[in-house]
Amino acid sequence: MYQIYPRSLRDTTGNGIGDLNGITERLGYLADTLGVDAVWISPFYRSPMADFGYDVADYTDVDPLFGTLADFDRLLAEAHARGLKVIIDWVPNHTSDRHPWFVESRSSLTNPKRDWYVWRGPKPDGSLPNNWQAVFGGPAWEEDPRTGQFYLHSFLPQQPDLNWRNPEVVTAMHGTLRFWLDRGVDGFRIDVAHYIMKNPDLADNPSAPPPPPEADFKDLAEYDEWHHVNDKGHPDVHAAFRGVRSVLDEYDERFAVGEIHIFDWDEWATYYGDDDELHMPFNFSLIWSEWRADAFRRRIESLEAAIPEHAWPSYVLGNHDEQRLATRYGSAATRPAAVLLLTLRGQPTMYYGDELGMPETPVPTERRQDPWGLRVHGMGRDGCRTPMQWTAEPGHGFCEPGVEPWLPFGVDAGVRNVDRQRHDADSLLNLYRRLLELRRERPSLRHGTIAMLDGLPPDVLGYLRHHDGERTVVLVNFSATEQPVDIDGATALLISTDPQRTTVDERPVVLGPSEAIVVDAT
Ligand code: NOJ
């Protein structure tokens, strides 16, 4: 699955912002040049764009900035004609404060939609209803002068949280799913899925236990001072997702993946339910891992140990909220990271531009846009959201020459772009293409078992994928030095990140710096 941040793929209207027709234009690249099976498109709903579309003002329409419903229908039809599935973002935890539901809700204490959101009066001493914090900084409560009550917002004040305990909200939100399912979408990526159910008593969060020595997750600044046991992930969330799943199951072959940031693997795995909740929660653990063989192995083994029998794992190495992987792990890691993502057991999700090795783009202060970064120092996400780099020419195939893109182009866009890499057999883009092709050809990579290999040098991670007699061995050198590895039996090289390698006949096989190989060991 390939994630598209719609503002940044391709602008066809000359306003410097990507749009749906731009995505449709590039479906050939995605299906044929690269060869992915599905796209996930971040929100394109009507929105005031306080959080660039994660503040939805109408779940059943396209924002004019991105096009029209007819444009979406065309995108979907053309994607399906090319064999691509289309997954769209669904944002159930909060709406925009401009959503008509919230406009009604805030209008009076007695409005029929008052309870569609989470409203509370101040404590007797006039203070906030509780100590909950917003992820994007400051208290999670905003006072509304009209009624003197506060509303809950887990993110921006412009993103009031819906009250999923109100059955009318559930019905209305299920209706938004059916709207898109009826149009033919293949499924949903569910935004902050674990946030939708809170402790109904709205009890204070306790302060957080000290962080573990090797942080397994992103540092969220002040938000991390609290142990978030009451403001999200209440056990009632599972009934809510059983409800969502039953809507999906009214249709053939529809899919839901949840954005779930939970670092306790057993709790994380509960979101699969008994094969009656989400098809999978995203697994972000590798994003926050140091680029070290033992750290990756620990996370892969933790995932494999936690996952229920019926369930299928997922892997993510980048998205629109995280620093680009080429910067996070370093540019030497971009090739072996591609091998890992596309050969581990599970569904891989890749982020646009990572197939080119786009690094984080430095965005000058005056051009910064991300509300999180503007509110909390160091949390800006603009650097991973800059325009896709298609060509070396002015506009870089993203927009017409002379148009100012909404965020600056990467400084390397002249040399790091699709045009250049498409014609270079040894490029990272072509490595992704070959890995995707290999995955399609080899059932062991698609749905085989995984067993970690022991007895390797400490800087090398190795595993065996096995299905129905077909065996594929993957070896990844995380270090900048050569590493000798023993591989048992006859093998044939399928792919190496090193374009010079043609065989794995020598014993031991000496992996080059940052080299990853995929071999047939059948
Ligand atoms: C998670 C999304 O990935 C992020 O981009 C967004 O800002 C928050 N949820 C709030 O919707």
Overall description:
By secondary structure, this protein is an alpha/beta fold. It has 3 domains: 2-95 and 166-433, Alpha-Beta Barrel (TIM Barrel), CATH 3.20.20.80; 100-152, Oligo-1,6-glucosidase, domain 2; 448-520, Immunoglobulin-like, CATH 2.60.40. It has 14 helices and 20 strands. The chain has helices at 20-25, 27-34, 69-81, 100-105, 167-183, 237-248, 265-269, 293-306, 325-328, 334-343, 371-375, 418-422, 428-441, 443-447, and strands at 2-4, 38-41, 45-46, 58-62, 85-90, 119-120, 141-144, 149-152, 187-190, 255-258, 280-281, 314-316, 347-351, 449-452, 460-467, 470-477, 483-485, 492-496, 509-511, 516-520. It is globular and about 80 Å long. It starts with a strand and ends with a strand.
What percent of residues adopt helix (DSSP H or I)? 10-25%
What is the 3D form? globular
Q: Pick out the low-confidence regions.
A: none
N- and C-termini, Cα separation: 28 Å
Strands of the biggest beta sheet: in what spatial order?
11-10-9-5-2-1-13-12
Please render the helix and strand layout as text.
Layout: E1 2-4, H1 20-25, H2 27-34, E2 38-41, E3 45-46, E4 58-62, H3 69-81, E5 85-90, H4 100-105, E6 119-120, E7 141-144, E8 149-152, H5 167-183, E9 187-190, H6 237-248, E10 255-258, H7 265-269, E11 280-281, H8 293-306, E12 314-316, H9 325-328, H10 334-343, E13 347-351, H11 371-375, H12 418-422, H13 428-441, H14 443-447, E14 449-452, E15 460-467, E16 470-477, E17 483-485, E18 492-496, E19 509-511, E20 516-520
Parallel strand pairs: 1-2, 1-13, 2-5, 5-9, 9-10, 10-11, 12-13
Antiparallel strand pairs: 3-4, 6-8, 7-8, 14-15, 15-16, 16-20, 17-19, 18-20
Helix pairs in contact: 5-6, 10-13
1-deoxynojirimycin binds next to loops.
